[in-house]
Amino acid sequence: MKKYLVDVYLPSLGKHYDVYLPISKTIGEATGLLAKIAESITNGGYKCTEHTLLLNADNGSPFNRDISVYDAGIRNSSMLILI
Length: 83
Description:
This protein is of the alpha+beta class and 83 residues long. The chain has one helix at 27-41; strands spanning 3-10, 15-22, 54-56, 79-82.
């Protein structure tokens, strides 16, 4: 499975994390995966909800949850925001 190394920013904690993201997952699946990773590496400091969003850090717009990571234009070194 091919993965991209992306920078995920958690504004609620003011921290950035480098995470490998599978390119074949949908944005909805990737958001859930990133939220679980964020909860784990922050020892519960980050809490995900059903309203968790993945945003493009370049323009602040949310990604469409139904398209793949690849189709969303996410690549190696992409900067994302998880809120």
